[in-house]
């Protein structure tokens, strides 16, 4: 009943692991896909004359129309809203030179850290690459905190959300060209 079975298990195993979610997004960013994604979104930018046409700003007739208008405008003017965000971010960097210096210093610190084999010594200890990244991250976050990056971040996000919400709510979506998909948001019903 018991017989010897020989199975050859020699060779190399190279399992491919599929990254999921945020890790996959980070991998795309590391491969240089982030600029391509931003440029792809920006290529769909609508004319600014259409974006700021004051004759198309009207209060919505009802809540369902407001909801439909909001989603339609977000979809249609997505690249313009991204440009508004980038403009507000640039404004904050220009008006806060200390923050600009902190971001530039953090960038060049990161480039220096990743440029080659660096050895940091603290006393008689030599820091591993992971420990070097941890020290760099702590120093960079402290520098940005001292420069007021938190306040700038919340100001930019708050201003962007306010501008986008106001524009998307009051710009009359019925004046826009028809969408490719007629029923983009099936749960929203116009009454």
From TrEMBL:
GO cellular component entries: Golgi apparatus; membrane; synaptic vesicle
Keywords: Membrane, Transmembrane, Transmembrane helix
PANTHER family noted in UniProt: PRENYLATED RAB ACCEPTOR 1-RELATED (PTHR19317), PRENYLATED RAB ACCEPTOR PROTEIN 1 (PTHR19317:SF0)
Residues annotated as transmembrane: 81-110, 133-157
Chief place where the protein resides: cytoplasm
Domain of life: Eukaryota
Family assignment from sequence similarity: Belongs to the PRA1 family.
InterPro entries, A to Z: Prenylated_rab_accept_PRA1
Compartments in which it is found: Cytoplasmic vesicle, Secretory vesicle, Synaptic vesicle; Membrane
Its membrane topology: Multi-pass membrane protein
Protein name from the UniProt record: PRA1 family protein
